[in-house]
């Protein structure tokens, strides 16, 4: 077990170690839009604020069918030179849609030559409409959507090893997916909650008038079955300025029974700020983790 305490906020290209100010600027602009939408409850956006093409990436538009016959949409973002054995599925948070993560996909494809599969949960973006509860932390159906994307990736790109990178709600879903599915090369979890009860408790302590609706489902509880984690690696990323997802909660997920597991604290970073405020340190953590994935 190793923890990192990152402090620098300078922006660099991870491969060349040279300033990459344009990328950092784009990430910060979209970060502000994303945080405005994030409140630990479901707030999907239908309209896309950008596309991979607008960031200079080649991509395929996807329609994926879930086991319960919902249609979800995705973008398969391609690096200029696909030189890795990995494919990274990016599971977003509880707000916005997959277009909010296009700059992050660009960062990953450019610096690691890794294809990134973005997707929208049902009810988000152009995926099939879904009657969601705007006071809920998440719906178990979102894990069904992630299941479908993993199955699609395995069938469509059989030579690739599957990584799942989840953010906020997506991070917690990614950990549960790693508990339920065998053969996943690794899970990267940025700002996951460990349990709905812990998250609700901390939010209610800060704001007693808040309305949150935890939904009873093991598909939304990463800590509940962490001892059965089957993915071959786990990278946990936490911002030291997080208000509701605290270090002790995230560290509890280090109980996952895998040798390739790391926990990193990022100084001066709040919820979902790590890739944007500390891109060099974020990139180094990703590079180290990928280097240890089988």
Features:
8 helices; two-stranded parallel ribbon; alpha/beta; disordered N terminus
Summed up:
The chain has 294 residues and is α/β, with parallel strands linked by helices.
What does this structure look like?
The chain is of the alpha/beta class and 294 residues long. The protein has one domain: Rossmann fold (3-Layer(aba) Sandwich), CATH 3.40.50.1820. The strands form two sheets. The chain has a nine-stranded mixed beta sheet, sandwiched between helices. Strands 2-6 form a two-stranded parallel ribbon.
SS-derived structural category: alpha/beta
The CATH architecture is 3-Layer(aba) Sandwich
Count of DSSP E strands? 11
What helical percentage do the residues reach? 25-40%
- Low-confidence segments, given as residue ranges, are 1-38
Major beta-sheet overview: 9 strands, mixed
| Tally of distinct domains | 1
Radius of gyration: 17 Å
Number of helices: 8
Strand fraction band?
Answer: 15-25%
Give the CATH superfamily.
Alpha/Beta hydrolase fold, catalytic domain
Q: Estimate the global geometry from the Cα principal axes.
A: globular
How far apart the termini lie comes to 18 Å
Can you identify the CATH class? Alpha Beta
Give the neighbour order of strands across the main sheet: 1-11-10-9-8-5-7-4-3
Assign the CATH topology: Rossmann fold
Helix-strand pattern: EHEEEEEHEHEHEHEHEHH
């Amino acid at each position: 077990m190793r923890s990192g305490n990152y402090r620098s906020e300078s922006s660099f290209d991870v491969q060349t170690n040279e300033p990459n100010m344009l990328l950092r600027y784009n990430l910060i602009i979209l970060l502000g839009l994303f945080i405005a939408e994030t409140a630990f409850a479901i707030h999907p956006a239908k309209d896309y604020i950008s596309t991979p093409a607008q960031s200079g990436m080649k991509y395929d538009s996807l329609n994926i069918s879930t086991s319960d016959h919902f249609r979800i949409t995705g973008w398969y973002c391609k690096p200029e030179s696909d030189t890795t054995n990995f494919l990274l599925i990016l599971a977003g948070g509880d707000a916005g849609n997959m277009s909010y993560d296009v700059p992050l996909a660009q960062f990953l494809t450019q610096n690691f030559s890794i294809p990134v599969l973005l997707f929208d949960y049902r009810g988000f973006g152009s995926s099939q409409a879904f009657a969601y509860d705007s006071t809920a932390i998440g719906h178990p159906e979102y894990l069904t959507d992630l299941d479908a994307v993993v199955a699609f990736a395995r069938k469509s790109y059989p030579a690739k090893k599957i990584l799942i990178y989840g953010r906020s709600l997506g991070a917690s879903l990614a950990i549960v997916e790693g508990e339920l599915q065998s053969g996943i090369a690794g899970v990267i979890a940025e700002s996951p909650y460990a349990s709905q009860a812990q998250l609700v408790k901390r939010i209610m302590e800060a704001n007693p008038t808040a309305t949150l609706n935890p939904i009873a489902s093991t598909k939304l509880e990463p800590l509940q079955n962490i001892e059965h984690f089957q993915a071959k690696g786990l990278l946990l990323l936490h911002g030291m300025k997080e208000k509701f997802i605290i270090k002790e909660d995230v560290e509890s997920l280090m109980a996952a029974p895998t040798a390739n597991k790391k926990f990193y604290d990022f100084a001066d970073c709040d919820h979902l700020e790590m890739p944007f405020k500390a891109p060099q340190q974020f990139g180094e953590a990703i590079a180290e983790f990928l280097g240890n994935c089988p």
